[in-house]
Amino acid sequence: MTSVLLGDAHGISVVDFKPFLDGSAKQDVANAILDSFKRVGFVYLINHGIPEEQIKGMFDWSKRFFAQPMEVKQQAPHPPSGTHHRGYSAPGQEKVVQHVYDDNELKDVRAKAPDVKESFECGWEDNAGMPNIWLPDGILPGFKEACTEFYWTCHETELQVLRAITIGLGIGEDYLVKYHHGHHNQLRLLHYPSVSAAQLKDEKIARIGAHSDFGSITLLLQDDAGGLEVEDPNNPGEFKSAPPVAGALVVNAGDFMMRWSNDVLRSTVHRVRAPSNAKTVDGMVPDRYSIPYFCSPELTAVVECLPGTYTADKPPKYPPISAGEYILRRLASNY
């Protein structure tokens, strides 16, 4: 396994994904990914299969979109309903919610401060239940096509990561793939404007407050600004930096995957703050851009704990659940 491990970033494994993609060391890569997911819920993948030029192009489109005047961006408005996660959200519109169990009762704990970020979200173009919301024709031509192409490129990498998870668990490599057709994923472009370093430090404002993702897995591309932090699973409340790693795709497990895996895989709380080594200008933290791709199963799926995650001595902790019921509730709680 050591040959596929390229390093460690504050406890998160950096894994070479190429030997999985070319078949030369699939089991070793799968084991390394699963180990990192079990320990901390995150992994960095190098040689992940998403073309570098396409990534650069998508970041360029993101910067062009967010550079538009507010009145232009608001011509593709995110609906008031949190269950329709499409279109543009202005800074402060969304406030993340952390999903917790208290005395076995499911509760949503809302963040104290609004997130100072803006976002644009899109999904499967033919999703009649959650149609995309684009800018009017003639404004930023080519943006829609770039987003749609990138969406499906990310889906191909999603499927490979899901195959690695199931191989690591010792079950058929297409076990999770058959539930994930890409119809309910979400591509999000994120821009964190330059803000006061002092206000961030004093938590008067937030970039993204502490939360966990709620789907199957999340693929994350980030620029080199830094600021992503992951909670130490063994020390709640203690966060460690998940710094940018050149050429890496960050992948983390979501709450639904943790439940699906009978808590074998961790869905870890994370947040975005000002990096400790941030170079401020006149007391301001520079802009940050990132592109998360949130992966969810088909909403019609009813799932139960994965084979290989339970035994007679360690039975399933959770009954079967509808993916649609779970995910739509989590979407609605963010607005």
- Termini separation comes to 43 Å
CATH architecture: Sandwich
Based on helices, strands and strand pairing, what is the structural class? alpha+beta
Relative helix content: 25-40%
CATH class: Mainly Beta
In sequence order, what are the helices and strands, one letter per element? EEHHEHHEEEEHEEHEEEEEHEEEEEH
Structure report:
One of its GO terms (molecular function) is dioxygenase activity. The protein has helices spanning 18-21, 26-39, 52-66, 70-73, 143-169, 197-201, 255-260, 323-332, and strands spanning 5-9, 12-16, 42-46, 87-89, 97-102, 105-110, 118-122, 186-192, 195-196, 208-211, 217-222, 228-231, 239-241, 249-253, 270-272, 284-285, 288-295, 302-303, 321-322. With 335 residues, the chain is of the alpha+beta class. The chain has a 9-stranded mixed β-sheet. Helix 2 packs across helix 5 (143-169) and helix 3 (52-66) crosses helix 5 (143-169).
Throw out a few tags for this protein:
alpha+beta, four-stranded antiparallel β-sheet, single chain, 335 residues, Jelly Rolls, 8 helices, globular, 25% helix, nine-stranded mixed β-sheet
Helices and strands in order:
Blueprint: E1 5-9, E2 12-16, H1 18-21, H2 26-39, E3 42-46, H3 52-66, H4 70-73, E4 87-89, E5 97-102, E6 105-110, E7 118-122, H5 143-169, E8 186-192, E9 195-196, H6 197-201, E10 208-211, E11 217-222, E12 228-231, E13 239-241, E14 249-253, H7 255-260, E15 270-272, E16 284-285, E17 288-295, E18 302-303, E19 321-322, H8 323-332
Parallel strand pairs: 2-3
Antiparallel strand pairs: 1-2, 3-14, 4-7, 5-6, 7-8, 8-17, 9-16, 10-15, 11-14, 11-17, 12-13, 12-15, 18-19
Helix pairs in contact: 2-5, 3-5
